[in-house]
Design goal:
Belongs to the glycosyl hydrolase 43 family. This is Family 43 glycosylhydrolase. This protein is mostly beta strands. It has one domain: Tachylectin-2, Chain A. Helix content is 5%, strand content 34%. It has three helices and 19 strands. A hairpin with a 2-residue loop joins β11 and β12. It is globular.
């Protein structure tokens, strides 16, 4: 299954227009990672994500991508318009399929709620069990608002989740560390969802603040079901994961199960905070281990350990279910700019 962000226009565009938060999410599939993902027998692919285009009467009021590029919410609640950062999660215990994605509020805001919650958010929507390439054509389809940049309760819990976790914590800081404003109101960003299950808990990794900000970071939430990941649930677990420091910021990645079938790793971006005129805002790819702590709360080792990758980028990869480990392979940060 190929899930990606793209802009589709009703007519050819020349030159290629700039990105204006007007993208959508598209899905295609192939029997091989080598493709083809749009073979002659399926000329309609890739499909804009959402309920089935031709048969679902409810498609406009269910989460979906627009057929063509547009930078507003088309008069519907903005979480219904899928924009980018898609990932598909198949629950190994429940067998249910979910699509996680990011969406934007209208610019300028058109509702009072948008004024207080301006920016980028993350939702999860259940996919059709019989057709995991589509949102279920059912008004009762589960929709989970899991990430919002203006959630003061989550911010407070993140700051208190460890010693030093209050450092470089913001969802609303821009490239110069400034508070971002758009349309005269605070603009925040939560994006890049990645889901995995370990034991009894489903984990959701999210990136906060702007991608080119020195405050760009990764935090986690966890619960025993996808539905319980909703940001209004006080019972979900919350903590920081990748914390920026030493002029380096980290975010936007995917959780990957390691070769021993037990340990998890996070493949993600790193950005050195130097002016873009010098760096071109280039990012490179890092791998960070996802390690778990028992905090003595009776839940065992379910809390993801916070990590400052800029200070210690090295780690080992377990290569079997036994004790054999590969030697540390991560290079020092200053050696990884290529």
């Amino acid at each position: 299954m190929l899930s990606f962000t793209a802009q589709r226009f009703a007519a050819p565009q020349s030159p290629c227009p700039p990105y204006d938060e007007d993208s959508g999410i598209y899905l295609a599939w192939s029997t091989s990672p080598a493709g083809p993902f749009a073979p002659p027998a399926r000329p309609w692919e890739p499909l804009p994500a959402g309920a089935e285009l031709s048969t679902c009467l409810y498609r406009p009021v269910l989460p979906h991508s627009l057929d063509f590029a547009s930078d507003d919410c088309q008069g519907v609640p903005c979480h219904l318009i899928m924009r980018l950062d898609s990932t598909v999660f198949h629950g190994p215990q429940t067998g249910r399929w979910w699509l996680a994605y990011s969406w934007y509020t209208n610019s300028p805001p058109t509702l009072a709620w948008e004024l207080a919650n301006h920016g980028q958010h993350v939702h999860l929507v259940e996919l059709d069990l019989k057709d995991p390439f589509a949102v279920r054509c059912d008004l009762a389809t589960a929709q989970i608002h899991a990430g919002t940049p203006h959630d003061g309760e989550t911010l407070a819990r993140l700051a208190a989740s460890c010693s030093g976790c209050e450092q470089m914590l913001s969802m609303t800081r821009g490239p110069l560390g400034e508070e971002m404003l758009r349309d005269g109101v605070s603009l925040g960003v939560v994006e890049a969802p990645s889901l995995f299950r370990r034991g009894e808990y489903v984990y959701l990794l999210l990136s906060g603040s702007n991608w080119d900000s020195p405050y760009y970071h990764v935090y986690w939430v966890a619960a025993k079901s996808v539905e319980e990941l909703v940001y209004t649930n006080p019972g979900r677990l919350v903590g920081r994961f990748l914390i920026p420091s030493d002029g380096q910021a980290f975010g936007h990645g995917s959780a990957v199960l390691g070769p021993d079938g037990e340990r998890w790793y996070f493949v993600h971006h790193r950005l050195a905070q130097v002016p873009c005129e010098q760096s071109g805002c280039k990012r490179d790819v890092w791998v960070s281990p996802i390690e778990f702590d028992d905090r003595g709360d009776g839940l065992a080792d379910v809390h993801i350990r916070p990590r400052w990758p800029a200070q210690d980028p090295s780690f080992s990869v377990a290569v079997s279910a036994g004790r054999q480990e590969a030697p540390p392979h991560a290079l020092p940060a200053e050696a990884r700019d290529d």
